[in-house]
Write a structure and sequence with these properties.
The structure is a single chain. This protein has three domains: 2-74, no CATH class; 92-179 and 251-382, MetI-like (MetI-like fold, Orthogonal Bundle); 180-238, no CATH class. Helix 5 packs antiparallel against helix 13 and helix 15 (335-344) runs antiparallel to helix 16 (348-376). The mean pLDDT is 77. It has helices at 2-29, 34-38, 46-56, 62-74, 89-124, 129-142, 146-160, 172-175, 182-207, 212-236, 240-276, 280-287, 292-322, 324-329, 335-344, 348-376, 378-382. The radius of gyration is 25 Å and the shape is globular. With 383 residues, the protein is mainly alpha-helical.
Length: 383
């Protein structure tokens, strides 16, 4: 295990070195440089222009610029945003990232559980009406034109029924006298969701020792207790109404993302389970007299989870800045909208910083996926 982690750490270091080097090549391959972009303003005096050239190091040799580039990225210094000057790129990412994480991770987790549960069901009922209906419905939503579907959700549930707000991520009137800002609430909501996840994980591990009749009540009871404690904590802090406002604004984009993405997990789970059901150990489990539910959940579904969990982890990283359409339609100021605006405004440091940050998340996801696969598959641990 230690040798494997050491090998993966070396591979990650080499990958990041190549990734940062490619970022430098992208910057240098574009016409002009930072200084040309900033010095186009005719209102800047000539002496100030010379000072900016020296400050940004545009007149340094190429090799020295490359070493500075690697040093800055290694220390987390992505530069200053041109469009939001004088804010640093890392501060902009820190502001927009919690909003995107809260939105897309919530939708990804819900779509994963929905898709995995439906994938198990249709694989076990192969050839039934349920399989055909779920497959046709899921594929139709998966292949639907996303901007049109998002606008229809916004029109029907927001404008026609008026069940949910139709724009932004908070109500300006409600937040006008709020004691904290939106990012403070987003961060606390992320911590609350993480706490619920930890409780569920511990409950799942502990429930393995409980009798079968009690086990099915342990998880719902843990969820209810965790949510009750969180609700009491938020209300006692006087921030509950702010969290509810954010949740109301999240409802439509989360529902839209869930409906258009759960089919991928459902079909992948179905295919993996159909392949796993042909294995000899499944036939042995049935010959031992195990119930259909035990064979499905403990033997077939558990081994079919390997590619499904890997796909889920990778989808989380690309969702960080991949939700450009959803964030634009629902006016959600997250990383996707930030990346698009940076490209439109030629804000090179901010666009490149978002690009590099996504690359770091992808590399981390690869490592987490490998660890999950080793946990789920004992054969990988022995190898």
């Amino acid at each position: 295990m230690a040798g494997y982690l050491t090998k993966r750490a070396v591979q990650i270091a080499v990958t990041l070195f190549i990734f940062f080097s490619l970022g430098f090549v992208l910057i240098q391959s574009q016409p002009g440089n930072y200084c040309d972009f900033l010095l186009l303003n005719p209102n800047i005096p000539p002496d100030a222009k010379e000072g900016l050239v020296r400050l940004l190091g545009c007149d340094d040799p190429m090799w020295e610029q490359y070493l500075k580039h690697l040093r800055n990225y290694a220390t987390g210094d992505f530069g200053v945003s041109f469009g939001l000057y004088p804010r640093s790129v890392i501060s902009v990412i820190a502001e927009r990232l919690p909003r995107t994480i809260m939105l897309f991770v919530t939708a990804s987790v819900i779509s994963f559980y929905l898709g995995f549960a439906m994938g198990k069901m249709i694989a076990w009922r192969r050839g039934s009406v349920t399989e055909y209906a779920a497959t046709v419905g899921g594929v139709s939503l998966f292949t639907i034109f996303t901007p049109w579907f998002a606008l229809m959700m916004l029109w029907f549930f927001g404008l026609t029924l008026r069940w949910f707000p139709i724009g932004k991520f908070l109500d300006p009137v409600l937040w006008r006298d709020a004691p904290v800002d939106g990012n403070y609430v987003f961060t606390r909501m992320l911590w609350s969701v993480s706490a619920v996840f930890v409780v569920l994980l511990v409950t799942k591990l502990a429930a393995a020792r409980f009798p079968s009749l009690r086990r099915r009540w342990v998880t719902p009871a843990a969820i209810a207790l965790s949510l009750s404690i969180i609700a009491v904590t938020w209300n006692s802090a006087g921030l509950g109404y702010l969290a509810v406002d954010i949740i109301r604004h999240m409802a439509l984009p989360v529902a839209t993302l869930t409906l258009i993405s759960f089919a991928g997990t459902m079909l992948l789970t179905r295919n993996c389970m159909l392949e796993t059901m042909r294995e000899d150990y499944v036939l042995t489990a049935r010959a031992k007299g195990l119930s259909q539910k035990q064979v499905r959940d403990r033997h077939v579904a558990r081994n079919a989870m390997l590619p499904v969990v890997t796909s889920f982890l990778f989808s989380l990283t690309f969702a960080i800045d991949g939700g450009v359409i959803i964030e634009t339609v629902f006016s959600w100021p997250g990383m996707g909208q930030t990346l698009v605006n940076a490209v439109r405004q030629e804000d090179i440091p901010l666009a490149l910083g978002a690009f590099v940050f996504t690359g770091l998340l992808v590399v981390a996801a690869h490592l987490v996926a490998d660890l999950f696969n080793m946990y789920l598959d004992p054969r990988l641990r022995h190898n």
